[in-house]
Amino acid sequence: MSRPDDLLDQLRAAPGGLALAELLAAHPGLSRRTAQRWLADLVAAGQLRTSGDARARRYHVVSVIAPVGLPPASEAAAI
After folding, report:
1. DSSP-assigned letters across all residues of 17-30
2. Phi and psi at residue 15, in whole multiples of 5°?
3. 78 vs 39 pLDDT, higher one
4. pTM for the complete prediction?
């Protein structure tokens, strides 16, 4: 059974993003409505962004880039 993390993993592997139809083809047991709900939740959480409208909408993983010159969060606590 698919989970939202499975969709994220597939989207991470697709630099150009994926459309809902492409995600559904890769997850045949997943209903369209459940996939739409999961994707909307991931967009609202800031993990995905969209481009295009309606059937042309594509989903892309949001990349988080740390500012240059700052230590990683794990090291920042020790400072």
Report:
1. -EEHHHHHHH-TTS
2. -60, -30
3. 39
4. 0.76
